[in-house]
Design goal:
By secondary structure, the protein is α/β, with parallel strands linked by helices. The protein is built from 13 helices and eleven strands.
C-alpha cells in the first residue's frame, strides 16, 4: 500500500488506495437497514473503466495514491455506510481523482461524471426527455400514413417512448446494478443555491420517478430507456430504484457552504494541498511516478528537485498539482539540458494561483 507511513493496513478496508485492482467489493457486508434498497430488475452490464480514468491515474496500473490513515478510514466508512463522500480541498488536490481511483481498484467500471455549473438542475442529472423530437417523429408518421386516425393526446402511449428518454449520470447510477456504480458530482459548490437541497431525496431514498413513463405505466409497465453509458436499461412503472447504492463522490473547492441536511447525509473528507512533510512528498512522488514512470536516476533526481521547489516556495500560497506535472513535462521535453532555462520555466509554471491576490502582480 502506498502511504506516507509503514503502519499495517487494517483488515476491514475495502478500498486500500494501493492502485492494484482486486475483488474487495465482494467483501462489503450488507448495508445498514436504513440504507438497504431493493430495486429490480437487474440493470445491464457495466462498461469498462473509461479513458478519463486512465488519463487521471497516469495510465499505469499498480500506482496508488498516498493517503493518510484517517482519509482511508473515511473513504471506507462511506463504502460501508452507503453514504456519499463530500470531498473538499484546493484545486489540484486530487478530489476528482478519488472517484476514478476507487472505480479502478474495485473493478467498478466507467465513472459516471456529472460536472456542475450554475445552471445545473436536479433534472439534468436524473434524465432528459426530448418531447420535440418525439412530436416531430409523430408528425412524420402521420404524413406517411395519412389514412390512420390519430387522436391528439399527449398521454397516448408509443412503443418507442424510451428512444426519447435518456438517463443522466445520477439517474444511471441509481439503476439497480448488482454492484455499485461510481458517480462523480464535480464542483457542487458551483451550483445554484437550490441544487444541494434538491439532491436530498434522491440520495436518501435511492430512487426517482419519470413522470412521462408513470402516465402510461398502466398500459406499458416496462420501458427501455437510454443510459449515460449509451446502453439500454429497463424502467418498470416509471420508477428507478437502486439495488446497490452508488459510490457518490461530490467535490467542492470550498467556495460556498452547504445546507445542514445535506452535510448530515454525507461523510466529509478534506484533501489539503500537499505540504512539505512526509505525506506531502510521498503523495507528489507517487503522482509524478504514475504519470512519467521511473526513467533513470537522472530524471528521478530532476523530478525530485522540482517537487522540492514546488513544496518549498512561498509557503501558504495556493498551488495545484497540475502545475507541477506541467513543469516536469515541459522541462523534460523542451529544455532538459539547459539548467537555467529549466529552472526559469519551472518557476514560471508553478507560480501561485492566488499570485495577484497576494500582491505579487497579475499572472
Amino acid at each position: 500500500m502506498t502511504t506516507a507511513t509503514d503502519t499495517p493496513e487494517p483488515d476491514w478496508y475495502i478500498y486500500r488506495g494501493a492502485g492494484e485492482p482486486h475483488d474487495g467489493i465482494g467483501r462489503l457486508p450488507a448495508p445498514p437497514p436504513w440504507r438497504d434498497f431493493d430495486g429490480e430488475p437487474g440493470a445491464t452490464v457495466v462498461p469498462p473503466l473509461g479513458t478519463e480514468s486512465t488519463r487521471r491515474l497516469g495510465g499505469r496500473s499498480g500506482r496508488g495514491i498516498a493517503w493518510r490513515p484517517e482519509q482511508l478510514e473515511l473513504i471506507n466508512a462511506a463504502l460501508y455506510l452507503r453514504r456519499p463522500l463530500l470531498v473538499t480541498g484546493d484545486p489540484g488536490s486530487g478530489k476528482s481523482t478519488l472517484a476514478h481511483a476507487i472505480a479502478h481498484e474495485l473493478g467498478l467500471g466507467r465513472v459516471l461524471q456529472w460536472p456542475i455549473v450554475s445552471r445545473t438542475t436536479l433534472r439534468d442529472g436524473l434524465y432528459t426527455y426530448d418531447a420535440i423530437a418525439r412530436l416531430q417523429d409523430t408528425q412524420m408518421a402521420k404524413v406517411r400514413d395519412a389514412s390512420q386516425a390519430w387522436e391528439e393526446n399527449d398521454d397516448q402511449p408509443t412503443e418507442d417512448i424510451g428512444d426519447y428518454l435518456r438517463l443522466g449520470p445520477l439517474g444511471t447510477a441509481l439503476l439497480p446494478y448488482g454492484r455499485p456504480r461510481v458517480l462523480l458530482v464535480d464542483e457542487l459548490d458551483k451550483s445554484d443555491i437550490d441544487l444541494p437541497n434538491d439532491l436530498l431525496n434522491a440520495l436518501e431514498e435511492g430512487e426517482f420517478r419519470i413522470a412521462e413513463l408513470q402516465r402510461i405505466a398502466g398500459r406499458q409497465a416496462d420501458v427501455e430507456v437510454l443510459t449515460d453509458d449509451d446502453e439500454r436499461a429497463v424502467v418498470r412503472g416509471g420508477r428507478v430504484r437502486c439495488k446497490a447504492f452508488p459510490i457518490v463522490v461530490m467535490t467542492s473547492n470550498g467556495e460556498r457552504d452547504f445546507p445542514a441536511p445535506l452535510l448530515r447525509r454525507c461523510l466529509h473528507l478534506d484533501l489539503p494541498s500537499p505540504r512539505d512533510d512526509a505525506w506531502g512528498r510521498s503523495r507528489l512522488d507517487t503522482m509524478v511516478t504514475a504519470h512519467f514512470g521511473e526513467e533513470g536516476a537522472e530524471v528521478a533526481a530532476r523530478n525530485g528537485e522540482l517537487i522540492r521547489t514546488f513544496l518549498d516556495s512561498a509557503p501558504g500560497s495556493l498551488r495545484a498539482a497540475d502545475q507541477l506535472l506541467n513543469a516536469i513535462y515541459l522541462t523534460q521535453e523542451a529544455v532538459r539540458d539547459r539548467e537555467p532555462d529549466r529552472q526559469r520555466l519551472a518557476e514560471l509554471l508553478m507560480r501561485p494561483l492566488d499570485h495577484g491576490e497576494r500582491g505579487g502582480g497579475p499572472l
